[in-house]
Specification:
The chain is mainly α and about 140 residues long. It has one domain. Helices cover about 75% and strands about 0% of the residues. It is elongated and about 60 Å long. The termini are far apart.
Length: about 140
């Protein structure tokens, strides 16, 4: 059971990182947003070159903190749904309907996480001026 809990934590972390990575190179997979969004770590790594204002920096930090707190709630839902799936899979016979309902609950929670992450990426881009966006875009083409 401990390895399952560790696995859930890893899945949750990977989901968050995957959402943030939407704006980054996806290792050969096509970027669904065609490089139009920028992950917070990319923005912060280049904050000096971007000449971020204090207001921009504060707003970026607030957006990241907000999404992290909102994601935490859905990660609990996801963890609970997968625990129910695994418990139901141990039964004989397996109640297919119940397992699929729990899988659906997990997928809904995962979808909410991804939507919040994309919304954050949009907010971050909207905080940047045209020159900052152009600079970050140029990093992708190098």
């Amino acid at each position: 059971m401990k390895s399952f809990k560790n696995g859930i934590v890893i899945i949750a972390c990977l989901m968050f990182c995957a959402g943030v990575a939407v704006a980054q190179d996806r290792g050969g997979k096509p970027d669904p947003f065609q490089g139009k969004l920028f992950a917070p770590d990319i923005i912060l790594r280049n904050q000096n070159q971007l000449n971020l204002t204090k207001e921009q920096f504060t707003a970026i930090k607030a957006a990241v903190v907000e999404v992290q707190s909102n994601v935490a709630e859905h990660e609990w839902d996801l963890r609970e749904a997968y625990q129910k799936v695994l418990a139901a899979l141990d039964e004989s016979p397996i109640d297919e309907k119940r397992v699929l309902e729990n899988v659906n609950d997990a997928l809904l929670a995962e979808n909410q996480v991804k939507k919040q992450q994309v919304a954050m990426l949009i907010r971050l881009k909207n905080l940047l001026n045209d020159e900052q966006v152009a600079y970050l875009t140029s990093l992708r083409t190098d």
